[in-house]
From TrEMBL:
This is Kinesin motor domain-containing protein. Residues 416-617 form the Kinesin motor domain. It holds the Pfam family Malectin. Residues 337-416 form a coiled coil. Residues 1-28 are annotated as: Disordered. Belongs to the TRAFAC class myosin-kinesin ATPase superfamily. Kinesin family. Residues 1-14 have a biased composition (Polar residues). ATP binds at residues 499-506.
């Protein structure tokens, strides 16, 4: 409570507390002040303002200085020094009681100097502050006068209305909207003097302080005895003399003039206030309109701001996504860059190598070009060679035909029908049976064969060639091979074996798989020569397989067996069998397959166990 200040108004020299001197009425408490009040007509407005705060109509007044010792202190019943911790007895006999009888509020004390503080300015250096009330008991019933002492303690000047409160006495409002500062300013006492109160038989006096703005405050409460005269109903037409207690006539004309002046002042003030109000209302209306417009604008701006915020948010989001993508792309870009760099390096290397090769090649090409003396000459030479070659081909063909003719003439000269004789060695059973050879091969080279009879006589047979048991398959085929060329030259050739069963026909013609006979070797030779001549001749080779059985010709490749076949002789002497199946073959294997198919279709093959040694080939 030490720093009881009103800081917002610190050091405000412009605001001057009105220097009021308020008085009225007839209590006679301080006639001097009353006289002053009448004298200072210029201050009537402030006076009326102060008057307006007093609700008590029993003649109480506001006095703007401190407590002075009255002529007689006997009438003072009780003086409570509000906010004071201790009681104090003055020289003049006034006893200032310590703060008592209160309910609520706080004490307040200050060392501030109190201007015009009266005889005991310390009263004003303490106060009770807050919402509080006083309840004084055991007062002898009767009529009393109540004085209240106030002061606004403040270091600096302040505005009106900073502390406004109501005071109730016995539940009756005696001060309304009471504003100390507006009357005396700060650090200057203000007394509310002479409120009449009648104490009933219960002996209780209740004072209540209620704040309108800020907290109520009081520095002292003084209860005085009222003499009978002062209690009697005051006639407002008279002053009461304090000294003699006589009523002094109050001139009504003066009073009327005062009232009229007051009314005029009030009316003027009301008019001014009305004008001000109108002006302020207009200003308010204008302000309200501009405020509404501003508000609308503000709403728009807010909406725009919201939109912008949202867009910003969206853009931020999009930006983040883009940044993420960009990071990905730049990562990929970096990777690609690396791989491309490697690839480019490789390519550069290759290009380098290729350039080297290219220059090498062009060098070679140049050398080559240089080395060809005259290309045209060469072309002509080649053309001449080609022509020569064509000529040679023609000549070669002619020679070929001649050679073939001569060859076949040689063959014919050797004999159109050639008979060879082959003797097989003794078979195992024959050796076991101690058989001996009866054939003599002494003149075999000359194609002669001697058969030894039981006697010493020898019968000789002549052949184109005789093969002894020592001659193998290759030797036998060597004599058959030349006729293959004749076949391909267009001559008819027939090779067949004849002999008794078991003499070696099958062995000679077919042979074994590891030791092929004439058939197989002849066919191989046939296809070999045909291939050799394929550039100049195209051969169609076909195979027919037939058997003569019971004087009937049977086509062993035919699917229908009922067909009757006959051997026909053509005009040039060749034989052919119309209607016989001719299977086209391309190689030895195909021939072999056809032969096997025909072999399995033989009539004798199925019921004769010894089929391979029972018939001629
Ligand atoms: P054919 O066909 O005339 O009835 P094979 O060809 O079946 O007689 O011959 C009878 C047997 O004599 C067979 O076991 C065969 O291997 C054998 N043979 C025939 N000629 C010779 C030969 N030149 N050398 C050795 N063995 C032979
Ligand atoms: Mg046989």
């Amino acid at each position: 409570m030490e720093n009881f200040q009103f800081s917002p108004f610190d050091n405000n020299p412009e605001f001057q507390a009105p220097d009021l001197c308020v008085s009225s009425g007839e209590s006679g408490e301080d006639l001097n002040q009353e006289t002053q009040a009448f004298a200072m007509e210029e201050d009537e407005t402030e006076q009326s303002l102060a008057d307006s705060m007093i609700c008590d109509d029993s003649g109480s007044i506001l006095v703007q200085n401190g407590f002075t010792i009255p002529d007689s202190t006997d009438e003072i019943v009780l003086f409570v020094n509000s906010g004071a911790m201790t009681s104090m007895e003055s020289d003049s006999g006034v006893s200032f009681t310590a703060d008592k009888f209160f309910k609520g509020g706080d004490t307040f004390q200050t060392e501030e100097f109190i201007t015009e503080g009266g005889d005991y300015s310390f009263i004003y250096q303490s106060a009770r502050l807050g919402d509080f009330r006083y309840c004084i008991e055991n007062i002898p019933p009767g009529n009393y006068l109540l004085d209240l002492h106030f002061v606004e303690i403040i270091n600096t000047y302040g505005p009106k209305g900073m502390r406004v409160f109501n005071v109730y006495m016995q539940d009756e409002k005696i001060l309304s909207d009471f504003d100390i500062f507006s009357i005396v300013g700060s650090n200057k006492p203000l007394q509310f003097v002479g409120a009449r109160v009648s104490i009933k038989d219960d002996g209780i006096l209740v004072l209540r302080f209620e704040g309108v703005h800020g907290s109520p405050l009081v520095s002292g409460i003084c209860l005085r005895k009222a003499n009978n005269k002062s209690v009697s109903k005051v006639n407002r037409e008279y002053f009461v003399c304090t000294n003699c207690s006589n009523d002094i006539e109050y001139p009504s004309a003066q009073k009327k003039l005062l009232r009229m002046k007051l009314v005029a002042q009030y009316e003027k003030k009301i008019k001014d206030l009305k004008d001000t109000l109108q002006r302020k209302t207009d200003e308010c209306y204008q302000s309200w309109i501009s405020w509404t417009a501003a508000n609308e604008q503000l709403a728009k701006v807010r909406m725009e701001l919201d939109n912008k915020t949202y867009r910003t948010y969206s853009l931020d989001h999009a930006l983040e996504m883009q940044a993420e993508k960009l990071r990905d792309i730049s990562n990929k870009y970096e990777q690609c860059k690396k791989s491309w760099t490697i690839a480019i390096n490789n390519l550069e290397q290759k290009v380098k190598v290729m350039k080297q090769e290219h220059s090498q090649l062009s060098r070679d090409a140049h050398e080559c070009t240089d080395s060809i003396p005259d290309l045209n000459k060469m072309v002509f030479a080649v053309q001449a060679l080609v022509e020569q070659c064509e000529d040679l081909k023609v000549k070669y063909n002619e020679e070929q035909i001649k050679r073939r003719k001569l060859y076949n003439q040689v063959q014919e000269a050797k004999g159109n029908i050639r008979v060879f004789c082959r003797c097989r060695p003794l078979s195992k059973p024959e050796v076991i049976a101690k058989c001996s050879l009866v054939v003599d091969f002494d003149a075999a080279k000359d194609g002669e064969l001697g058969i030894l009879n039981s006697g010493s006589t020898k019968k000789t047979f002549k052949f184109d060639r005789v093969y002894s048991p020592k001659d193998d398959q290759v030797d036998v085929f060597a004599d058959a091979a030349p006729v293959v060329i004749s076949v391909l030259d267009g001559y008819n050739v027939c090779i067949f074996a004849y002999g008794q069963t078991g003499t070696g026909k099958t062995f000679t013609m077919e042979g074994t798989e590891v030791n092929r006979g004439v058939n197989y070797r002849t066919l191989e030779e046939l296809f070999r020569i045909a291939n050799e001549r394929s550039e100049t001749y195209a051969y169609n080779i076909s195979v027919s397989v037939l058997e003569v059985y019971n004087e009937q010709i049977r086509d062993l490749l035919a699917t229908e067996t009922s067909k009757k076949l006959e051997i026909k002789q053509a005009s040039e002497g060749s034989h052919h069998i119309p209607g016989i199946v001719e299977a086209k073959v391309e190689n030895t294997n195909e021939v072999w397959k056809v032969l096997q198919a025909g072999s399995s279709a033989r009539a004798v093959g199925s019921n004769n166990v010894n089929e391979h040694s029972s018939r001629s080939h």
